[in-house]
Amino acid sequence: MNVSSLLPTLPARRAPASPPARAAPAPSPAPKQRDAFFDNAKYLAIVLVAMGHVWEPLRDGSRAASALYMTVYTFHMPAFILISGYFSRNFDLRPDRLKRLITGVAVPYVLFEIAYTFFKRWADDDPSYPISLLDPWYLTWFLIALFVWRLTTPLWRIARWPVALALAIAALAACSPNIGDDLDLQRVLQFLPFFVLGVHMRPEHFRLMRRREVRWLSVPVVAAAVVFAYWAVPRMNPAWFYRRDSAQELGAPWWVGTVMTFALFGCSMVLTVCFLAWVPRRRMWFTVLGAGTLYGYLLHGFLAKGSRFWGWYDHPWLHRPPGEIAVTVVAVAVVTALCTPPVQRAFRFAMEPRMEWAFRRRDG
């Protein structure tokens, strides 16, 4: 007999239970890739803005400088506004987007409006110049305009004929002298069609602009625009391009404001297409600067205005071709430096403040 068969059967020893496997942490979302084309376009547009500002004091003694000035002013801000509209096309009234609108647009407007006021008091020896958040000074008009445009984006997304409606509003503004200077509403309304058009543009529209035939056709178009501007210098008030006054304020009949609204919109869009057709699509050495264009835009204004206050343009040499070229090169170098990441980090407290203390935490 097998003795082992008489022994009580012992329960089998269980292997120690392994600890439950931890759930793998959800992968963090990959950072959104920036489009090199749009960063390149924003950088090149802000360079043209700076060039236009340094050319302004050179116009009196140079018809060529005036022609280039008028050509650039026809499209540099419309191009920038069009791209701003394109990147605002998904804006709605979600809390996180409203927070970003306040911290990225409204707060910088307040801070730079105050900073510009104190700068003018000091640099222009005008200690009584008032602080007024309702009357944007110099470059800050774009921030208040962007704030208004972006808030109205949901309305433009549901309108049946949004661009036509925006053009009608701009035309009415151009012949309405009673709008006044509060919040620079003339500019807000007269530049509105470019923003609305950008809201309704799609990637395929920009791809059409970058076709080879468009690129080569743009060369004679821009050349013709410069020739026309050279002819128009003694015949046209460049203040039309600023869009900050009505027709009556510029000494023209009211109906001219309507005509100029549509004429300038057409010319601006043609030259904007020509400009975007030549913007590189691949990453360039200046692509990274596209993220800092608002820094370059607001900061270069101190030097642009200071050069007038301090009489830098009083030197006769600057009004000759070598001096004009030198001024242009300096403007490009300065605005490029102001768009760099170190400058962004230094001024992020004013341009992109976090301000967590000012907002409620969202539950969940």
From TrEMBL:
Region ranges (Disordered): 1-32
Q: A Pfam family matched by this chain, by name?
A: Acyl_transf_3
Compositional bias, Low complexity, is annotated for 11-25
- Which parts of the sequence belong to the Acyltransferase domain? 36-338
**Regions crossing the membrane:** 67-88, 100-119, 131-149, 214-233, 253-278, 285-303, 323-343
List the GO molecular function terms: acyltransferase activity
> What keyword terms does UniProt attach to this protein?
Acyltransferase, Membrane, Transferase, Transmembrane, Transmembrane helix
PANTHER family under this entry? Answer: MEMBRANE-BOUND ACYLTRANSFERASE YKRP-RELATED
Its protein name is Acyltransferase family protein
Its organism's taxonomic lineage begins at: Bacteria, Bacillati, Actinomycetota, Actinomycetes, Kitasatosporales
